[in-house]
């Protein structure tokens, strides 16, 4: 099991560790802010349902799914010469590697199932992005409503908050950093190597070689 699934197991454990770290530090930070404002403190369970936690969590998930979804779509038709993250420039250079095993049932079924399966990765990331964007909006709006109520000001509607500069600032600061990370990976794999990593070209490969 470890040999076949070690990467996903470690990544999942890291996700849980960092998420728990975010929950605990966010809980302490938010309660410190409430204490300074002379407002009632939240219990841990209450914090997990607060706008502060929901917004902070899903604004980051939103940017991750946007990044990966766009990366999947853009690498279908676009190339970057010399990058290990790009498909080869010419179809003649591209070798299809299909392992022995049963063909997925949507391919065998054909028709609309095959068509949907052919775009299922982008569709899945699109749905995950929409879900995260919606939950980010809901959490951010709840946090804004709480803040306005404390100040004795009329709370905005969800629609008003959607078009506010504060909400889009939360999104854009994450989106730009995600695309910077992808751009860095694409460009740096042209010239730099990481021994034994599938994200890197072989050490002896010329800089102009495109693909892994």
Number of helices: 8
Q: Secondary-structure element sequence?
A: HHHHHHHH
Number of separate strands: 0
Sheet with the most strands, sense and barrel status: none
Helical content class: 55-70%
Span from first to last CA?
26 Å
The backbone outline, from C-alpha atoms, is elongated
Low-confidence region ranges? none
Description:
With 212 residues, the protein is mainly alpha-helical. The protein has eight helices and no strands. The chain has helices at residues 2-36, 44-48, 51-77, 105-109, 111-118, 120-151, 158-162, 165-191. The mean pLDDT is 86.
Give a quick precis of the structure.
By secondary structure, the chain is mainly α. It is built from eight helices and no strands.
């Amino acid at each position: 099991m470890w040999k076949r699934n070690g990467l996903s197991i470690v990544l999942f454990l890291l996700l849980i560790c960092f998420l728990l770290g975010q929950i605990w530090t966010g809980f302490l930070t938010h309660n410190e802010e409430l204490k300074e404002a002379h407002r009632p403190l939240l219990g841990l369970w209450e914090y997990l349902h607060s706008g502060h936690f929901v917004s902070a969590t899903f604004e980051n998930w939103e940017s991750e799914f946007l990044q990966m979804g766009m990366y999947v779509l853009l690498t279908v038709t676009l190339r970057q010469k010399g990058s290990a993250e790009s498909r080869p420039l010419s179809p003649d250079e591209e070798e299809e590697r299909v392992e022995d095993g049963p063909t997925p049932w949507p391919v065998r079924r054909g028709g609309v199932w095959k068509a949907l399966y052919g775009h299922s990765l982008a569709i899945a990331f699109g749905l995950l992005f929409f879900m995260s964007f919606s939950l980010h909006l809901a959490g951010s709006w709840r946090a804004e409503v709480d803040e306005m109520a404390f100040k004795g000001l009329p709370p905005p509607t969800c629609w008003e908050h959607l078009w506010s500069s504060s909400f889009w600032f939360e999104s854009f600061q994450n989106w730009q950093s995600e695309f910077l990370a992808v751009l860095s990976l694409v460009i740096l794999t042209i010239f730099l190597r990481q021994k034994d990593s599938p994200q890197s070209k072989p050490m002896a490969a010329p800089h102009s070689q495109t693909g892994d």
